[in-house]
Specification:
By secondary structure, the protein is of the alpha+beta class. 40% of the residues lie in helices and 18% in strands.
Length: 484
């Protein structure tokens, strides 16, 4: 064989190997049809892990106005929960590794967001799976969920108040009848732990015995949402409610001293937490619980998690800990950096956060057609002249179009007197999520370096601006911004 033939064979081998690798890499395929998706941005959202529930966007496509079809081909590591997101609306499903999904969006009025706050009142996208190769994974799980929900509606009092074990046993028979031998282990485990939540809540089995049956020396099913939801129910409040081996005072002291070893060793006193891997999972859930509790200093929780990352031997726990830290930073609470933005005003100028560095910024998110928002803007107006030397002001209008902001500022008797900066959010729903905007108006106080001081800040009508009005006897150079 000459060198040329040998080279061709090597090239062909490498080419087909590359094709095989690419084909294997794109192990999830989704097709979505819909008559009213034209002009929309369709996002595919993955849940990074089922403890932090941190979301990440893994694909996004901007459609033309005439488009009625969108396709995604992506790589996923495991069967996992995912969302299709359009504006503020989601459809959640379990994406099976290696499967394909043909979906259809039924007729849906996206303009409902103009009359209802869909950031607060969630509306699910009416998407159906028309064809799939996931062996009816989603259909079976849907059947399990609806069977349990309907049964609880009819028997809630008997199960949750009277602790009727026979009723719970009947439910278990109904759920197990939905599963046959052809179903995957994912479905079988999902059913087991979904029923475990009911048994734990109904107290029809001794708590310690049930915990042992569900978790003691059992595999940790990180990717199974049934398992992790059951874990959440059983251990979600372990630090504050269900813990007899650790006092609140000890927790505070360990957090303050960043004493990870004392905390993890004390958890091991619980005989059900002897397993090192499961004990760390309980620790991680406790860190999430503690961070969002008002009982503990959130900065101490962050330090403890950072310490944990260098102590744990388990890669999955490193990933969860890092996801928790990212989740905490995204929540825009006290001490975190405000998210950057570039938003358009009515003069076609783009406004970004850097413009306001050097003085504290009072940032407000509003909807201009809502009377309650207009009242707060009017209240803020009465303070602007007094505070403008020491503060910046920016109001972000979250109405449907920039035209609404233009008409308000130029054509209304009220808006023409507002001389501070206004910009339009430009349909950037991710920005609202980053700043935890779920109701309107929302006010946020950001310091001169771009660090969030208060989120949410009290409204002007609630007296939030009064402490910042300088008294005559206070020298301007000594003006002090009290973040509390």
């Amino acid at each position: 064989m000459n060198n040329k033939d040998w080279g061709l064979k090597v090239f062909s081998f490498l080419f087909f190997l590359f094709i095989a690798l690419v084909s294997n890499a794109q192990n999830l395929r989704i097709e979505l049809k819909g008559e009213n998706i034209g002009g929309k941005t369709i996002k595919l959202i993955s849940i990074m892990d089922n403890l932090s529930n941190l979301e990440t966007e893994i694909a996004s496509k901007q459609l033309n106005q005439t488009d009625t079809l969108v396709n995604f081909s992506v790589l996923i590591e495991n069967t996992s929960f995912m969302k299709i997101r359009i504006e503020t609306f989601d459809y959640g499903f379990i994406a099976q590794k290696g499967a394909s999904y043909n979906m259809r969006l039924l007729p849906f009025d996206f303009n409902i967001k103009d009359s209802i706050n869909t950031l607060f009142y969630k509306f699910e996208l009416p998407i159906i799976i028309e064809n799939t190769t996931d062996n009816n994974l989603n259909r079976t799980i849907y059947s399990i969920d609806t069977t349990i929900e309907n049964y609880l509606i009819d028997n809630k009092k008997e199960i949750l108040f009277y602790r009727d074990k026979k009723k719970v046993d009947s439910l278990k028979l109904m759920v197990n009848s939905l599963i046959d031998s052809s179903q995957s282990n994912y479905v079988k485990d999902y059913a087991k732990y979904s029923l475990g939540k009911i048994e734990f809540s109904s107290k029809t089995i001794n708590d310690k015995k049930l915990k042992a049956q569900l978790f003691y020396d059992k595999p940790i099913l990180y990717d199974n949402i049934g398992y992790m939801e059951c874990f959440e129910v059983v251990y979600g409040h372990y630090f504050t409610e269900g813990n007899k081996v650790i006092t609140k005072q000890n927790l505070i002291r360990w957090f303050e001293n960043n004493n990870y070893f004392s905390l993890i060793d004390s958890l091991g006193v619980d005989t059900l937490l002897k397993n090192e891997v499961f004990r760390e999972l309980v620790f991680l859930r406790g860190m999430k619980e503690a961070y969002f509790s008002t009982q503990y200093n959130s900065l101490n929780i962050v330090s403890m998690l950072e310490n944990f990352i260098y102590q744990t031997k388990f890669k999955e726990h490193v990933k969860i800990a890092k996801n928790l830290l990212e989740l905490f930073s995204q929540k825009s609470y006290y001490g975190s950096n405000a998210k950057e933005f570039s938003l358009q005003d009515i003069h076609n100028n783009y406004i970004n956060l850097d413009k306001y560095k050097g003085k504290p910024l009072i940032l407000s998110f509003v909807k201009l057609h809502e009377p309650s928002n207009l009242r707060e803007l009017n209240m803020m107006y009465s303070f602007v002249d007094t505070l403008k030397d020491n503060f910046n002001f920016l109001t972000i209008a979250c109405d449907n179009s920039l035209d609404a902001l233009f008409n308000f500022l130029v054509n209304s008797n009220v808006g023409v007197r507002y001389k501070w900066d206004f910009a339009h959010f430009g349909g950037d729903w991710d920005l609202l999520k980053a700043y935890n905007v779920a109701v309107f108006p929302t006010f946020i106080l950001i310091d001169s370096k771009g660090t969030i001081i208060q989120n949410p800040m009290r409204k002007p009508s609630e007296g939030s601006l009064m402490p910042f009005v300088p008294r005559k006897e206070v020298v301007k150079e000594k003006f002090f911004l009290d973040p509390k």
